[in-house]
Specification:
Number of strands: 3
Strand content: over 45%
Oligomer: single chain
Largest sheet: 3 strands, antiparallel
Strand order of the largest sheet: 1-3-2
Distance between the termini: 28 Å
Shape: elongated
Structural class: mainly beta
Length: 64
Amino acid sequence: MTHAKVVPDHFRIAMAATFPATSRGDPLLDVLQVLPEISGLDLVSQEDAGGGRRRTAVQFEYRD
C-alpha cells in the first residue's frame, strides 16, 4: 500500500522583520521583490521600532 501526501504548490505567508533604519530602503522588501518564487507582495505595515530601527510586516505568495 502506498500512502500519498498532497502538498500544495503555493503558500500565503505573513512575516515581519526589524532592521536598522537606512536611507537605502527596506532590506526585507528589497530581497522579497527580486525572488522569482514570490508574488503578490503586500506591505502590511512599516513603523519606527525605536532606537534607529524600522519594523516591516508583509504578506506574499510563495510558489515552489
